[in-house]
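Board notes (copied after class):
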Amino acid sequence: MRIYLLGAGLIVLAMWGYMYSRRLSDGAIADFYVLDAKSTVDLDAEASCALVADDFHGTSISTIRGEAVKQSLDKAKFCEDMHRAVAILRQAAQAAHTAPNVSYSNQQNRVIFAPDHRAATIDVTYQLDIGRMHVSGQRTDKLIKRDGKVLLLEQDDRSDVSLVMR
């Protein structure tokens, strides 16, 4: 009888552990945005792509010199754009005989967890400076936890891009 009770207890404990490991926490979300910032500052397109779910979709509206540029993204397009941007920035820095000067910060303003805590919607503001280009934006991210990893599933991004004269 004791073996049955011990076995039942282990099964319940394993199920609880499995369910808990699939839940998002405030700490996991904060860690995600630390990785997001690091991959951005390091111009690491691969690391940025690794933070995005395979079924990601998003929209981006960037205002550049008063003109709005709208874009719809899936993971392939996101990663392609990220690789292209990093290559251009590295080439420009190399041509100027300098290292790319990247500064990035993000702030999570509001986190709303799904009832099962497997997903969360986060309002984010961010600032990105690359050389003389300044980007300030707001976005709404939907993060999910799959196989123990926090991933970006959806994103609605609005940003303003300007050149800073020095």
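Comment from the instructor: The beta strands are 52-64, 67-74, 102-113, 119-130, 133-146, 149-163. DSSP finds four helices and six strands in the chain.
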